[in-house]
Structures are given as structure tokens and as C-alpha cells.
Amino acid sequence: MGATYLTQLPHFAKTLINDDPQYVTMLLTIFSVGIALGAIICEKLSGDKIELGILPLGALGMSVFGFDLYFSSQNIITSNSMTVVDFTLNNYRLLLDLMLLSASGSIFVVPLNALIQQRSEKEHRAQVIAGNNVLNALFMVGSALFSIVMLTVVHLSVLELFLSIALLNVIVSIYVFSQVQEFLIRFIVWIISRVLYRVKSTGLDNIPETGPAVLVCNHVSFVDAILVGAASRRPVRFVMDKNIANLPVMKYFFKWAKTIPICSPKVSTEIYKQAFDQIDKELSSGEIICIFPEGKITRTGELNEFKRGIEHIVKRNPVPVVPMGLKGVWGSVFSRSGRFTIMRAIKRFRSELEVVASTPIPAEQISAEKLEKVVYQLINN
């Protein structure tokens, strides 16, 4: 998409603005500034990790500003006597669309390139990056061929070409996000964690970058899984009460997030066994599992007794366990500290909370009592 805009900007300037080369230079400069701006925004939105939640923002921006570029270009104000400064002042919407379009592309591409490097095996990383560059080059050639066909065979104008590219981006984005649900899930998690709260993270480097591990955390609210998932640099598989996992509408989101439903063996021995089998399977595949050993959301703000399910997990699959704590969540509208009221929601909006992680504990040292003490120290330190 970016290659199409870059290669057609000279045609766009000559056809709709002026054949003076300075206008082409101006458009290319604005497009380049937008790319740099997008990279800066990406860094600010991502923090100190690769944030896949901003990918839909980038995809959305490319289409929205692509569409608006088409409409803002319908009535370009220009004349042979007009300077570049005058043109900028009279057509700021068009130039702003172009800059934000390229910035959106940067927001989309930067996390993906970082993700390729992070998730590729170290011994094959160079080949993976090289292969990605080859694919990028092929798609650039494909975009040039597409432009030639649209402009010379279909006889579209350059503006209609830009409009068709924006529309195709919508279709492709819908397909990609429907196939790779992780992007959409991370987007929802990112929105909730960034909009509703101001999250401070401590000790997250203790979560292993590779290999299996179990995260254990106190259970304070209905959004604890979202807060832990947003803080982790890696995808997390959550073990969740089956009644919550099967809530109408939300069950589809939990299914996309690959949550593992569980219940008491007194309720269903089959679901209980399936849950532990699935946990074992995920850990054997090198994934990260998160459980809330209290088994329920606190009603007092105090830590409940830890159940022994974590002991069964590490007995079947001896992996390190990372104790975590959520601080400042009690009292929020998603906790059980009181009835929901509008004033309470307003007062707690953008409240500050902290996600804390301790050093991993080897499987052979794990007990429910020990983990309860460590988590208690984390949230009361």
C-alpha cells in the first residue's frame, strides 16, 4: 500500500496540483515525515514491549485517511502563482491526510517487523528477516503491476486508484484480523488497560521470554486477566471458571483468547480433567499459563487462601512459576468492593494501579502456601 502511494505521488502532483517538481518533493517529504511520526507514536503507545494491540489502529488509520484523502482532493486549491506555503495553508486537510496515512502505515508495520524478530528462532532469524524482505519486494512489484492495470487498462484516475487501495485495505484487514485473532484480542486488551487505567509495571522481566511458565496472581476484579495479559510481553493462556468462559457473547472472545475453562471436580470431573490436560498440553508447547489460585474474586480486598491446583500443574509438568500481584485494583468498578454508581466510575476513571512480578520459583519448590505468602508480600509491599 505504501509503495503504491509513493510511486503515484508524482503522478498525483502533476495531475491535480502542478507539474512543478517542488510539489512532488513536498508530498514525498510529508509522507516521509509521517512515517517517522508513526514510528514515534508506535514507541509511545507500546512502552517497553512489542504491542500488537496497536495494529488495528494502524490498519484503521490507513483506510480512514485514505478515504479522506480521496474526498479532500476533490477541491484542491492551486494556481501557477501560488507558493508552496500558500498551497499548504489552503490545502492543509489533504496534506494532513497524507501524513497521517503514512503514520498509520508505520504504526502497523513497526510492531510486525519487531514481532518477526522476536518470535523467530535465533538460529534462523537472519533467514526469516531475509525472506520477509524478499516478500516485501515482491509485493512492491505487485503493487506497481496493480497500479499499471488500474490506470491503463481499467482507466481509473489516480484518485480512484487511491480510493480502491483504501477499500482493499479494509477487506484485507478484516480477513487478517479474523484469521489471527491475537491482534484483535490484544487491541481490546490494550484499549481497556490504557483507557480505563494508568498501569505501572514492576518486575515484568521476570516473566521468561521463551519457554513454558505458570503465572499465579491475586484475584481482585473481573478484568484481572486483561490487566495481566496487557502487562505480559507474551501471549498468555488463562484458566477461567467455566461459568464466566461461557457467558453470552463474551464466550467468543474467550474462545479466541484460548482460555481454558475449569470447574470444581464436584461439578464436573470431565471438565476438571480436560482443563488440566489442556494446561499440560499448552505448557508442553512452550506457552505461558496464568491461574488465579484463590479460585474466586475477593469480596473484602484481602487475599483468599490459595487452592492446590497449582501443585497438580507443576507435578504433571515441572515448569517455573512466576508470582504476580495486582495493586490498586480493589475499589474499581470491576471489583466487588461495592455497588456500581456513576460517581464511583468517574472517580476511579484513569486510576493508577500496578502489576508486579517476582522472580520465578522452580517447580520443585512450589507449594500453595509458599505462593500465597509471596503474592501477599508483593501486594502489601
From TrEMBL:
A molecular-function term among this protein's GO annotations: 1-acylglycerol-3-phosphate O-acyltransferase activity
Record domain Phospholipid/glycerol acyltransferase: where: 213-329
GO aspect biological process, one term: phosphatidic acid biosynthetic process
Pfam families reported in the protein's UniProt record: Acyltransferase
InterPro entries: MFS_trans_sf, Plipid/glycerol_acylTrfase
Pathway: Lipid metabolism
Keyword Cytoplasm: no
Chain segments annotated as transmembrane: 23-42, 54-72, 92-116, 128-150, 156-176
SMART domains: PlsC
Residue ranges of coiled coil: none
Keyword annotations of the record: Acyltransferase, Membrane, Transferase, Transmembrane, Transmembrane helix
Record's protein name: Permease of the major facilitator superfamily protein
Organism: Photobacterium angustum (strain S14 / CCUG 15956) (Vibrio sp. (strain S14 / CCUG 15956))
